[in-house]
């Protein structure tokens, strides 16, 4: 495993973690035109909500954007990755089952380890989590309003994503959302 730098950004409602090899933690920003198609890596089928989330994220990435005090140029669209979706689902299910909200699992695992456990070999990996938003539009709007989460969405370091939403009736946080970003080695 390469040496890594971990950057954790927090605001009042969300936590964003970005992990990358120390040698490539700089962002390379590219300009692209909008994209609304779906690219899927792996053997899973995207449901309507997955497609909607990917479309909203790629729509955001297709335009220059300010995330807090940082300006981002438009960047390439992300493709959907089934292994990243599985890692996101694992974490959302654990948060829902154990009623907690954190990037660190009860076993101490963080995003890099969860993605490794799904046999995805990455050069950059990151995660957004959220809780309580009832729709794709609500969660994407919340992430784009949070400087750290917005920066994750706009990062040219990532080329793929997967995500999951898990409801937990009676939970103070439900539903639990996890969005995993990565670039393969």
Secondary-structure map:
Layout: E1 4-10, E2 15-21, E3 40-41, H1 48-61, E4 65-67, E5 70-72, E6 79-81, H2 82-98, H3 111-116, E7 122-131, H4 136-145, H5 147-154, E8 160-166, E9 176-184
Parallel strand pairs: 3-6, 6-8
Antiparallel strand pairs: 1-2, 2-7, 4-5, 7-9, 8-9
Helix pairs in contact: 1-4
What would your notes on this structure say?
This protein has a 7-stranded mixed β-sheet with strand order 1-2-7-9-8-6-3, sandwiched between helices. The chain has a two-stranded antiparallel sheet with strand order 4-5. Helix content is 30%, strand content 28%. It has 2 domains: 1-35, no CATH class; 48-184, Pathogenesis-related Protein p14a. Strand 1 (4-10) and strand 2 (15-21) form a beta hairpin. It is of the alpha+beta class and 185 residues long. Residues 1-39 have low confidence and may be disordered.
């Amino acid at each position: 495993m390469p040496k890594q730098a971990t950057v954790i950004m927090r605001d009042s409602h969300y936590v964003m973690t970005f992990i990358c090899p120390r040698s490539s933690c700089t962002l390379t920003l590219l300009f692209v035109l909008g994209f609304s198609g779906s690219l899927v890596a792996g053997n899973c089928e995207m449901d309507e909500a997955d497609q909607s989330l990917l479309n909203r994220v790629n729509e955001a990435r297709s335009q220059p954007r300010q995330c807090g005090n940082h300006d981002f140029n438009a960047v390439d669209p992300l493709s959907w990755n089934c292994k990243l979706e599985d890692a996101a689902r694992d974490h959302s299910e654990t948060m829902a089952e154990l009623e907690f909200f954190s990037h660190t699992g009860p076993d101490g695992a963080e995003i890099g380890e969860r993605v490794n456990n799904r046999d995805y070999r990455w050069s950059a990996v990151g995660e957004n989590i959220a809780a309580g938003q009832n729709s794709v539009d609500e969660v994407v709007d919340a992430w784009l309003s949070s400087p750290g989460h917005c920066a994750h969405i706009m990062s040219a370091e990532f080329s793929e994503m997967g995500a999951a939403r898990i409801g937990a009736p009676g939970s103070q946080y439900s539903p639990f959302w996890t969005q995993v970003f990565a670039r393969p080695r």
